[in-house]
Design goal:
Radius of gyration: 48 Å
Strand order of the largest sheet: 1-2-5-4-3-12
Order of helices and strands: HHHEEEEEEEHEEEEE
CATH architecture of the largest domain: Beta Barrel
CATH topology of the largest domain: Thrombin, subunit H
Distance between the termini: 137 Å
CATH class of the largest domain: Mainly Beta
Largest sheet: 6 strands, antiparallel, barrel
Shape: rod-shaped
CATH superfamily of the largest domain: Rod shape-determining protein MreC, domain 1
Helix content: 40-55%
Number of strands: 12
């Protein structure tokens, strides 16, 4: 056993240094260049063999590279498109918000213009503007709440206007809000007068009729009254709560009633009772003579 170990230990280990490998590769490279330059015919078969192997491989690499490059370009373009799409969405949302604000401001401006025109139409009355903050759940402004109350000088029985004429009357007042009953409400009755003939009548609220036909009932018209289709009806001088001369609407379907003693008709209000936002309150109360309502 000891002899075998000695024999193994006597074997020489060959060590190849990196510089030897470098010099060997350098020599082979120089020799190959020299031979290919000096004897090109000898190297040609080698070149042909290499070309046979390398060229198809190179073509395949080029195809794969081109495909990868196209996919990379597509991916990059897709990312750019997604980024541009997100930016456009943000711009669209911003423009939509701006448009909504502009429309809201335009709507409010139109409302203020209408109130200003109405104020100029009735210059003899002191008025306070108010915004509607609540209404009935039926979608109509037959009874609604405004944001002005006793602290603003509002009192019951003050007349309320909007659009081109009469809306209704204040029925209850709190510190910072008030309730208004419109002329279309079932419990409303207004003493009216025909502008052309000065004949009086009673304009009665009828919410169902207003919702179905856009009209309310006019009764107690004198039988001999000279009235015609589309005649104007305003608040009467004999009303104990409504100021005189406020436009209510226009009459249609004038008929003699069943008793042959009076006439009846329908009235289309000048106020849009589906779309109210702001109103004017006449702060001067009508002198009460206990004639009606």
């Amino acid at each position: 056993m000891q002899k075998r170990r000695r024999r193994r230990n006597n074997k020489k280990t060959i060590t190849i240094l990196p510089k030897h490998v470098f010099f060997l590769l350098f020599f082979l490279t120089v020799a190959t260049i020299f031979v290919s330059y000096r004897f090109p015919n000898l190297i040609q078969p080698v070149r042909d063999g290499i070309d046979t192997v390398i060229i198809p491989m190179q073509k395949g690499i080029n195809v794969v590279g081109s495909s990868l490059s196209e996919r990379f370009d597509m991916f990059r373009n897709l990312k750019n498109l997604q980024k541009e799409n997100e930016e456009l969405k943000a711009k669209v949302e911003d423009l939509t918000l701006q448009m909504q604000l502009i429309n809201q401001e335009k709507y409010e401006l139109n409302g203020l213009r209408e109130l200003f025109a109405l104020d100029q139409k009735y210059p003899d009355y002191e008025k306070v503007a108010a915004r509607i903050i609540a209404r009935e759940s039926n979608g109509w402004y037959n009874v609604f709440t405004i944001d002005k109350g006793s602290e603003d000088g509002i009192q019951p029985d003050m007349n309320v206007m909007a659009g081109n004429g009469l809306v209704g009357i204040v029925v209850s007042v709190r510190k910072n809000s008030s309730t208004v009953r419109a002329i279309i409400d079932d419990s409303s009755k207004v003493s009216g007068m025909f502008v052309k003939s000065s004949d009086t009548c009673i304009v009665s609220g009828d919410l169902n009729s207003m919702m179905s036909d856009g009209r309310i009932k006019v009764t107690m018209i004198p039988l001999n009254a000279e009235i015609h289709e589309s005649d104007e009806v305003v608040t009467s001088h004999i009303s104990d709560k409504y100021q005189q001369g406020i436009l209510i609407g226009y009459v249609t379907d004038i008929q003699v009633d069943s008793s042959n003693m009076t006439k009846t008709a329908y009235l289309t209000p000048v106020v849009d009772f589906e779309h109210l936002d702001e109103v004017l309150i006449l702060t001067e109360l009508k002198e009460s003579f206990e004639l009606e309502e």
